[in-house]
Amino acid sequence: MQGFSFIHSSDLHLDSPFKGVITHSPAIADYLRTATFKAFDALVQLCIDEQVHFLVVAGDVYDGADRSLRAQLKFRDGLKILADHDILSFVAHGNHDPLDGWSSTIEWPEQVHVFGANKVETKTVKKNGEPIASVSGMSYGKRDERRNLAQKYRAANPDLFQIAVLHCNCGGNPNHEAYAPCKLADLTSTQFDYWALGHVHEKRIMSTSPYVAYPGNTQGLSIREQGERGCYIARVNEDRHVELAFHPLDAVRWLSAEIGIDGIGSIDDLDRRIAQIIDSLREKTKGRPVICRISLAGRGPLYAELRQETVIPDLLERAQQLGVSEDPFVWVQGIEINCQPEADLDKRRDINDLLGQILRVSEEIRDQVLKKRGDSHGLEDALKPALSELYDNRRVEKLLGPISPDDLERILHEAELLCVDFLEKNE
């Protein structure tokens, strides 16, 4: 068998809006609007630069079933460029872009194969006229795919390197919906040499014999998707040995930074530290723009000043001005107060007064959150008594939406600090 190479990508989410980003800069807003397209352009160029034989896209090409026309045209144009360079493309659709969603009458190049949803399809790849690999895949026909699709895959070409393309939740990842759920054993027990997975937005190699891999998404879409995003380049030699390398593609990177206030004595010192953080993030990404969130942690006398109403908004505005003053930009989306007063809250909790009692109640709720972290219904039931006045109001409930365990922990921490501020001042 001749050696060959391919790129495994997934979750392009073309034309997806960034979540949680508010900017009054037209230039930054425009850059963010086109970030998923820029990442796709980088993917196409990487295929050409690396002279791979084919590209695999393991689902969620688009962000929604009613995919935008400009996203469809962008994807078609990119695959046409690859076809002009004799690079094949194999595309599966996932839960965000099932085949029952709207699509325009776009004609795909002959070198592009989009997998159907009725059965697993297998296509043979040739190099210099000789078969070298088979690629099997299946798209979602509808968004809510709860069947174990992995059970439908059968390796049928043992003489070739066999690749399976599947959009699924393998191993019950709690951070993603259980679409096409399967176990790792469902994949490794087959004769496929490489499982090209999609759906999970973090890169992860779950097995190397055979290879079972998630490349993650090509562009982070929110602060929850920090760090480099991209694809895998797979090089297969004559003995079917695989060398897998990750390559970043993201046009803008989400990052976070923490500043401890313990040794900071003034707002001037903090302002200088924020400027240093911005410079370090710019250097870290080597020419790639950044969206970041800065967290103020630790315990110190600066805490009281930071709690003043206008201090954090003013620091944020200053940080944003610093971040966009140089290229590439570093957009500071928020500055969070996760620091504490000099008073030790754990010790303050043991004092038998009103503040101590409030802090003990908060701790009890936090314990419930930790116990119910993996049980959304149990968490909701535990919180109903405290939040009934809000969630029993239909209008308010629609605006609030569900509260995650992380959201609740932040709310509890903020409530504790507010109580400390108010009660300590009025003692």
Layout of strands and helices, then pairs:
Elements: E1 4-9, H1 26-33, H2 35-49, E2 54-58, H3 69-84, E3 88-92, E4 112-114, E5 121-127, E6 130-137, E7 161-167, H4 184-188, E8 194-198, E9 204-208, E10 211-214, E11 230-236, E12 242-248, E13 253-260, H5 267-284, E14 290-297, H6 302-306, H7 311-323, E15 330-337, H8 345-349, H9 354-371, H10 376-391, H11 394-400, H12 405-425
Parallel strand pairs: 1-2, 2-3, 3-4, 6-7, 7-8, 8-10, 13-14, 14-15
Antiparallel strand pairs: 1-11, 5-6, 9-10, 11-12
Helix pairs in contact: 2-3, 5-7, 9-12
Can you walk me through this structure?
α5 (267-284) links the parallel β13 (253-260) and β14 (290-297). Helix content is 34%, strand content 22%. It has a six-stranded mixed beta sheet with strand order 4-3-2-1-11-12, with helices on one face. It has helices spanning 26-33, 35-49, 69-84, 184-188, 267-284, 302-306, 311-323, 345-349, 354-371, 376-391, 394-400, 405-425; strands at 4-9, 54-58, 88-92, 112-114, 121-127, 130-137, 161-167, 194-198, 204-208, 211-214, 230-236, 242-248, 253-260, 290-297, 330-337. The chain folds into three domains: 4-248, Metallo-dependent phosphatases (Purple Acid Phosphatase, chain A, domain 2, 4-Layer Sandwich), CATH 3.60.21.10; 252-342, no CATH class; 351-427, no CATH class. It has 427 residues and is of the alpha/beta class.
Q: Which architecture of the largest domain would the CATH scheme give at its second level?
A: 4-Layer Sandwich
Count of individual beta strands: 15
Mean pLDDT: 90
Ranges with pLDDT <50 over ≥5 residues? none
The CATH top-level class label of the largest domain: Alpha Beta
Anisotropy-based shape? globular
Structural classification: alpha/beta
